[in-house]
Amino acid sequence: MAASSFKAKKRLDYKKPDFTATDIELYFQLADEGTVVRSTAHYVRLTSDSKAPLRLDGEDLVLKDVLLNGQNCKYSVVGKELIVPEVPDEFELTTECEISPIHNTSLMGLYKSSGCFCTQCEPEGFRRITYFLDRPDVLAKYRVTIVGPEYGCGVLLSNGNLIDSGVKNGRAYTIWEDPFPKPSYLFALVAGTFDIIEDTFTTKSGREVKLGLYVDRGAYERGLWAMRSIKESMAWDEERFNLEYDLDNFKVVAVDFFNFGAMENKSLNIFNSSCVLVDPETATDTNYFHVQSVIGHEYFHNWTGDRVTLRDWFQLSLKESLTVFRDQEFSSDVNSRVLTRLDAINTIRVAQFAEDAGPMAHPVRPEQVMEMNNFYTTTIYDKGAEVIRMIHTILGEEKFQKGVAYYLDRFDGSAATIEDFVLAMETASMTDLSQFRRWYSQAGTPEVYAKWTWLSQEQVAEAARTEAAAARAAAEQAAAAAAEQVAAEQGSAQDEGESAAPADTVASANAAAPTETASADETAAASTEVEEVEIPDVGRGKLVLTLTQSTPPTPNQKTKEPFVIPVRTSFLNATGAAFKPKELPESGVLIFNQAEQKFEFTDVAEGTIPVVFRDFSAPVKLKSIYTSADYINMLEHCDDPFIRIDAQMSLISDYIHKHIDKVNSGDLPEPTEILDAVRYVLQDNSIDLQLKAILIKVPSLRALMETFKKINLDGLVAIRKYLETELAKTLIGEYSQLEKKTRSTGSYKYTPEDAARRAVHNACVEMLCRGHVASGDVMQADDFIDSLYEDTDNMTERLCALSVAVNEDLPCKLKLLDSYEESYGNDPLTFDKFFSVQAAVASEDTVNVVRKLLDHPRFDLSNPNRVRALMGTFGYGNPVALHRRDGMGYLLMFDVVKRLNTLNPSVAARILDGMINFSRFDNVRCQKAIEYLNKIKALPDLSRSVYEKVNAALSAAEQK
């Protein structure tokens, strides 16, 4: 299809379907190249137009037959639609199609890879299986018969409950029935050979649910953590949200070839194996955490996504944001709240803020979409979850739970909208969220400026006297004006020849002046009272906090209205002690909903500072009048982990912004405050270890990039490396002590406490080796890393050692890479790390390394996991290599996208995310990016997915 024919869909163009389907029976006869799919659906007309034809979606289907109520009928196939005219108001339509799963490299619809038949139907994959109303507002009950191929499929799965199974004509078959209506995107089918982990869960009402986890042969042990996580998720949802599972079985299947992380198909969740399989030898602590989180996320969709689904794809965040919030709370409760929250915040501040600043910026509820696969974004998911969290912050836990319960009860079994959800929260909590809705309709990151002034009691009293005097003068002036008006009216009446006015009229008129005078007297009395107030403690006074907000323009949205921003606030005095003014609400939350707003707090000691946006209470960028001393105060004394991280980040970014122009001259001042701050963290044993692991390192390059509107990439890379080297060299003794203190002493186990200790240890290992290399002690670093790699019993530390060896280019690098390939080369999931470690090296030469890895015998362009490991890491996680000034990073990306465009358009578009955000770099880089994006745009048969992103980037560049 020519790119010029691609048209965007608009949210406001939504129309209800002319027909709906109430029931559908599907029959599959599986084969690699000729799978037969027979569909019989019961349709009901919804439109009053009796002549409207039935229009069904279909793509890449070979249509064999169409029957209307069992009889031949008229029909036509126009483009990607099957059109059946002259249909009654209620009828059955049967279609028979043939598809080729083995050749379906897009991995959308029904495909076969690694010997397994698998489906992915969200958002619009079902139309690649059969003709149907492939839209989320059509909910039907499904009955599915699967007939397996002649060999290789001992397991045949679909949604719902198993009704029958057996062998017929030498082929295995199963029949499944799902009693709950669902949209087509939640249909699932899996057929293959698996090891099965079986267990049960008893719900709080006493129902026993059979659990089945299906993994590759030989991976049984690696699936046990996922099974444990399933049971934890089911128990947690009952406890926290009072939501119970509703079917007799719950199945999870892990597959290697999958475009997404996982899919919440009703009762048959399909997972990327990377989100299921873990053990100490092959998985890191991060992998364990991720598996637990994703298992929870997909299970929680059973209610927030499956039982209540969405009306149209513009409402995607309806199910994803609430479910992300729920999975974050799950991880916080069963794992580590500090780790979970800081991880979520980092995603927003690094990835989502970058998206807001780029050409694909969009609201949490987009207004227009060309390719829906492009909108499974961090804005929809993660910013959306922050919007839900803000609702929780404003309402409180009790009212929030009441609102969610009302929403699920009100819309159970139906397709809802974001507006439905917000209205339900309003109704249940009796809270007005009218202005809050702007978080769903406006794109961009709000920028908040915070400043404050402290007034002594003398200044407060003087201000009150001045205000009272002004009020008294105004009252006296008003009284005089009123008296003059009365006199004028009386004179006018006499001029018109009137005799004396009636007595009551005169009395009424004469009463006006004394009334105004009395008001002035009262004001004067009040002023006198202020003047007579005794001055309390010297050094205490009023703190006036002024907040202003603005949001930069984004594509198709030039002007923004003020948001409702919950500002979780506390106060620290000059010695670091916490202080709560009486005016601060018990929740600590200030509601900031104007362009500029003042908040006043009395009886505040001089030197006290407000600590705003505790726990990152809103997804905003903060600018303030904090000093270095304030940042150090917050770092050392604030009890909020995010505030401590932000304080150190601000210390470092302030230094960088102030001195980045000096980096080429070598005239950089010693970063004394930063050194002292990190030394303090290294030596303070009371700091949470997950927090400490972050604080003892320099923030990532991508995090620091988001503190700039225009990015001096070369200067930023150089000054960040300088800071990292200074820390590593100057504090090498402190890092060494902490490294020894946090070494593993027993066999590996995954617990939040052990994971936190290993996180600190790995950070110390990285900084120690940087210090040794910078000081010329390369062999000491080499011996240390070589020993760590060989001696450890877990992948968390082994991967750290490999990463350090590769990043520092240690002599042992090639030896360790060879050892890793020998040990894990035949384990696809674990070997993905071999590619990602090398693609992440912040060096311009990484472009050449990645080119060589593309030709590695074990690199497979058709495997999304392998592509993400190499090109995803390179394209999104390595700005140094991707954005080379000579354009070689862009050329590499062009070459890969050219190959992927027709093979798997969704993955091709996703790896472009880093490249399209080029506009904040220097002109040389911008011109190179534009050059290669134009080459991509000119590719023949350019996919809709790739075109949308490339065209958006080029259009944004033209406007600038």
From TrEMBL:
One of its GO terms (molecular function) is zinc ion binding. It comes from the Bacteria. Residues 629-954 form the Peptidase M1 alanyl aminopeptidase C-terminal domain. Residues 540-623 form the Peptidase M1 alanyl aminopeptidase Ig-like fold domain. InterPro entries: Aminopeptidase_N-like_N, Aminopeptidase_N-like_N_sf, PepN_Ig-like_sf, Peptidase_M1, Peptidase_M1_dom, Peptidase_M1_pepN, Peptidase_M1_pepN_C, Peptidase_M1_pepN_C_sf. Its cofactor is Zn(2+). CDD domains: M1_APN (cd09600). One of its GO terms (biological process) is proteolysis. It is an enzyme of class 3 (hydrolase). Keywords: Aminopeptidase, Hydrolase, Metal-binding, Metalloprotease, Protease, Zinc. Residues 97-186 form the Aminopeptidase N-like N-terminal domain. It catalyses: Release of an N-terminal amino acid, Xaa-|-Yaa- from a peptide, amide or arylamide. Xaa is preferably Ala, but may be most amino acids including Pro (slow action). When a terminal hydrophobic residue is followed by a prolyl residue, the two may be released as an intact Xaa-Pro dipeptide. It holds the Pfam family Peptidase_M1_N. Residues 225-439 form the Peptidase M1 membrane alanine aminopeptidase domain. Its EC number is 3.4.11.2. The keyword Magnesium does not apply. Residues 499-528 have a biased composition (Low complexity). Residues 485-532 are annotated as: Disordered. Belongs to the peptidase M1 family. This is Aminopeptidase N. The gene is pepN.
